[in-house]
Amino acid sequence: xxxxxxxxxxxxxxxxxxxxxxxxxxxxxxxxxxxxxxxxxxxxxxxxxxxxxxxxxxxxxxxxxxxxxxxxxxxxxxxxxxxxxxxxxxxxxxxxxxxxxxxxxxxxxxxxxxxxxxxxxxxxxxxxxxxxxxxxxxxxxxxxxxxxxxxxxxxxxxxxxxxxxxxxxxxxxxxxxxxxxxxxxxxxxxxxxxxxxxxxxxxxxxxxxxxxxxxxxxxxxxxxxxxxxxxxxxxxxxxxxxxxxxxxxxxxxxxxxxxxxxxxxxxxxxxxxxxxxxxxxxxxxxxxxxxxxxxxxxxxxxxxxxx
Amino acid sequence: xxxxxxxxxxxxxxxxxxxxxxxxxxxxxxxxxxxxxxxxxxxxxxxxxxxxxxxxxxxxxxxxxxxxxxxxxxxxxxxxxxxxxxxxxxxxxxxxxxxxxxxxxxxxxxxxxxxxxxxxxxxxxxxxxxxxxxxxxxxxxxxxxxxxxxxxxxxxxxxxxxxxxxxxxxxxxxxxxxxxxxxxxxxxxxxxxxxxxxxxxxxxxxxxxxxxxxxxxxxxxxxxxxxxxxxxxxxxxxxxxxxxxxxxxxxxxxxxxxxxxxxxxxxxxxxxxxxxxxxxxxxxxxxxxxxxxxxxxxxxx
Lengths: 307, 301
Description:
CATH class of the largest domain in chain B: Mainly Alpha
Oligomer: heterodimer
CATH superfamily of the largest domain in chain B: MetI-like
CATH architecture of the largest domain in chain B: Orthogonal Bundle
Number of domains of chain B: 2
Radius of gyration of chain A: 25 Å
CATH superfamily of the largest domain in chain A: MetI-like
Strand content of chain B: under 5%
Structural class of chain A: mainly alpha
Structural class of chain B: mainly alpha
Number of strands of chain A: 2
CATH topology of the largest domain in chain B: MetI-like fold
Number of helices of chain B: 15
C-alpha cells in the first residue's frame, strides 16, 4: 500500500470508455476476479439453495423445497449436535495449546545460539509434512498401544499403557493437530518478536528487568496482535480439520471424533443426503465467517499501521 | 513504545559487558539445549517415519526403537534395506504420483497466469475499488471447502468430471489464488516507486513494465509464492477424496488406501509416507524464509 499510493495517481476512467476502455482498465484484474467468483461464490450460493431442499441423490423423485426444515432437523435430531461439540472441543483445544507451545518455541528460537537455523527448520517440518502422512506416523509408530514409541516411553517410566484412539480418541486426534499447528503459531509469533527492536529489550535489561518481567511487560503486549492473527487463522483452518480424522479414527469409535467436516463427508458419500449436508456446510461457513471477519479487520489495521 | 531509552545508556555496550561463564551466558546455554531438545522432539515423528521406511517389517515393531542404520548388533541399530520402496511401487504408487504432479503443476501455472497481472494491477495501477477487490480475494480464502463441496460435487457429476483431474485443477487454482495474490501484492509493494516512475517516464508500456521491470524484481518472491502453492495443493486431501476415485486419485488418497490394505506393515507404510511427503518438505525448507508471509497472507513479514 505504501509506496504506490503516495507517488502514483490512481488509474481513472478517461476518454477511452466503452468496452475497450473497460478491458484496458480492468483486464489485469478481471480474469482472477471472475475465476474466484465463479468457482467459490457461485457454489456457495448453491449450497445455501441446496440446504433449503429435501434432496437425496438416491431418491431424486422425492425432492422438494423444504424451507428451513433441514436446519430444524439438524438441531432437533441425530448427530449434528455431538459433531458440533466435537468441532468446538478439537478447535479450541488445538488452538489454545498450539498457541502456548508456539509462544514457548518462538521465545526459544528468537535468541542466537549455535544451530538456531537448524532447530527452526526442524520445528517447522511438522507443518510441511502431508497431513495424512503425519497422522499415519503418529497413529502407527508413535501412539500404537503395543508397538508405539510414546507408550514404550510411558511404560519405561512405570506409567500405564494408553490405547489413545480407543480410550481418549479426541485427545489423540487433537495432539496430532497441535503437533502440526504449534510450528505455525511459532512462525507468526517469531515474526512478531523480531519486529520488536533489540534496543527496547536490552534497555529493559539495563533498567534491571528480570527475564520474566521483560517477557511479561514488553514482549507479550507487543505480541498481542500477532497472537490474535495466529488464533484467528488457526481457528479458521482447524474448524475444517478432516485429514487427521480420516487417517486415524474415521470419526470413531462411534462418533467420538466426528467433527462437522467429517459428518458432512459421510452425509454426502454414504447417505447421499444433499439437503442436510448442505445445511451443515452453511453452518460451518457461518461460524468460520465470524472469525474471518475479525481476521480481515485486524489485517486492515495492520496494513494501515504499516503505512 | 512504552519504554523510552535514555540516550546516555548504550545498550550494545551493556550487552558486550557480559563475561564468559556469567549467569546470563549459562542461562543462554541452558535455553539453547532446551531449544535443541524440543526441536528434536517435534522432528522425531517425521525422522522416525523415514528411518522405519528402511527397516524390515520385523525390525519396524522392535522396541526400544532402533534408530541407527549401521553398526550391526550395537544397541538401537538395525540393518537398512530399500525393499519397502520397491514394494510401494509394486502396489502402483507411480500413477498416483503422476496424478498429483499434473493437478498441482497445472494449477500452479494457472495461478501464476491469473495472480501476477492481478496483484500487479492492484498495487501499481490502483483504481477506486482495488482495496475492496483485494479483500474480496481474502474472503474467498476463508470459505471452507465444506461450504462449496456439495454443489461442486453435484456439478462435476453432471458434467462427468468426477475422477477427472480437471476438477482438481480448477479447485486447487481457486484454493491458492487468494494466497498468491496477497503474497505477490506484498512483494510488488516493495518495489521502490522511483523505479516504476522512471520506467513510465521512459515510456514503457504495460507489458514492458510488468515483464521487464516488475516481474524480474520480485522473482525470488514469485518463486516462493509458487512453492507455497505447490505445498498446499500437494498436501490437499479433502477435495481430492470427494472429487476423485481411481483415474485421478492423488498421493494422499494412495496413503489412505494403502493403510486400508497394508495397515499392519509399518515399514511399507513408512516408505510410502516418506515418498509422499518428501517433495514438499524439501520445497518448504527452501522457502522457509517466505513461509510465514505466505501463511499470514502477507500480513507478517
